Amino acid sequence: MSEPSPGVAAAVEGELRLLDPLVRASTELLVQVLHPDFREVDTAGRHWDRDTVITSLISGRAPRPGPLTASLMRGVQLADELVHVTFDTEARGKRAHRSSLWRLTAAGWLLYYHQATPFVSGPAADE
Predict the structure, then answer these.
(1) pLDDT tier for residue 126 given thresholds of 50, 70 and 90
(2) 31 to each of 18, 92, 98, 126, 127, how far by Cα in Å?
(3) What CATH number is associated with residue 114?
């Protein structure tokens, strides 16, 4: 298996940073990872922008899922300045498929778009 591209490696590292509760509690660290035009669709289908996500996380109003376990993380370089990362998370028995787009900027690789879709395991889910 070949080594991931530098862009994929940076995006995966960024995803792992975003799972860290210390990063999620720091405006300074979040602005280093989230693109100014960041958008998210969460597991409930709500749309978020960068400022709303940061305010929600910092204020403590965001849901606290507890420790997130990530698995099946993989990335693909779609273009010189664009990486797509997919992975699954689990926290307190709730699971989600996650998909992110990372863009290369003058500040480095930043999370541009993220979507999470809840799922359950089972025969129908694996077909």
Answers:
(1) very low
(2) 11, 27, 20, 36, 39
(3) 3.10.450.50
